[in-house]
Amino acid sequence: YKTLRLILGDQLNAKHAWFQLKDDSTIYLIAELHQEATYTKHHVQKICAFFAAMKAFASALSQAGFHVCHLTLDDTAAYKSLPELLHQLISDHQIEVFEYQRPDEYRLLQQLRTLSLPASVSCTEVDTEHFLLPFDEIPHHFARGKHVLMEHFYRMMRRRFAILMQGEKPEGGKWNFDKENRHKLTATDLAAVPAPLRFDNPVSDILSRLDKHQIPHFGQASDSLLWPVTRRQAIELLNYFCQHQLQRFGYFQDAMTEQSEHQWSLYHSRLSFALNTKMLHPMQVIQTVLTHYEQADGKISLAQVEGFIRQILGWREYVRGIYWANMPDYASYNTLDAHRNLPDFFWTGKTGMACLKAAVSQSLHYAYAHHIQRLMVTGNFCLLTEMDPDQVDAWYLGIYVDAIEWVEMPNTRGMSQFADDGIIATKPYAASGNYINKMSDYCQSCQYSVKKKTGADACPINSLYWRFMDKHQQRLAVNPRIGMIYRSWDNLADNERQAILSRAEFCLNHLDQL
Ligand code: FAD
């Protein structure tokens, strides 16, 4: 072979230009790496999903007639890092040209850009051909340390790709229909929640390799993986979403329940793993959704479709821009100076707080939680209790099947922890038990009372919320959207405020017993 091309685990893009032409002198490398299995402690299903999808991609390429070198942990055990493995292969096969697709993660980009290959080997970096905003254009829209409003970025993307536009105007006259969305699930709604489409991908060989190589992991293991690991399965999941879930996507986007066996998936697409591994292209997802919308004869409302498209055309591209404009500094922001350690229940789900128990348990079970669980249950809890953002990042990066740093970190450190100096959000997503109660039925079965702020049975989130608001009053009260909240705090009698603050201190000192 003359050319070695590297395909990373999140670069499973069958439509890439690399695969337009066959060339017998090119070999493709797809390798299970110890460094990737251990750069953070991952949920076992996350590692299985990546390894299974990589194996499936390797066989699809071989079947299509490409030369592929698929290595398992057994084959790569001797190599501490990717560069070592590459050096070996380059020398074994007397490679003249090494090519890789630009990684989406800063850590890997640094690693590949600093390879010191023999002078006789030429090295080329190419685009992954996945994102909608070209990499080189990121600096036109994002600047280091600067707040960028998602809504502006999103409107630019709508215009640029002519998605849901009527000329210069947004379809339906508005850019955003959230006011019509975001409902709680009633008893009747619960009966109609669709079963999620699950796959049955065998992963016992991967599990035994993880064992054999003593790869640390957590979460519930299963021989059969429910996540899509091929492009065909990813497309099936996309179509299933359009047929069964899109209709109510926005409507119940923020809803949470523990009263349905499908509570963990509800109306969410669960396409993030397929998208983040690039098995699906974002424009393919958007176009498929638009086609279903157009053919649905009015049965799917614009509010559902716009809400969904905003997540992909807007949020997903936006957090990537924030990441690249701000790395590596972004990884060490800690605006609120938070330093507490995550309590054990983040790894066991054992807590009396029903909302946290549900969100953590399902994350351990499925390597998945939907956005509001991530943001307003676990994220909000970490924000209010001042958890160290490094630990919070590590937890999110490990536990979710879709977690890759470029998308995990801006969401966690920025959006949920408000640790990034306001680069993403102008105010923290802080909420009391009221919000959880408004969007879920968790509080009904909880041992704590959401109506109370003080006393041993008071919802801990309530006092923690007020402590947080009180502590950061100087910083937050200047924001007109928050200023009002302080009026009700300031109106409380001194002793009431004190009682709430002491309940919060008690909770902070006994997090593991809550
Ligand atoms: P749906 O609700 O069906 O949404 C459709 C798609 O929109 C998703 O698949 C995703 O690609 C995209 N999307 C939606 N919201 C966001 C967002 N805020 N940022 C980027 N893309 C978005 N998403 C990840 O892909 N990986 C992560 O590691 C990750 N970590 C997160 C951590 C925190 C603290 C928070 C608050 C959010 C995080 N998200 C992450 C964003 C979002 O929660 C997930 O994309 C979503 O829950 C995935 O489930 P889904 O495919 O069913 O999404």
UniProtKB/TrEMBL annotation:
Record's keyword terms, sorted: Lyase
Signal peptide residue numbers: none
Recorded coiled-coil stretches: none
Protein name: Deoxyribodipyrimidine photolyase
Listed transmembrane segments: none
GO molecular function: lyase activity
One Pfam entry name: DPRP
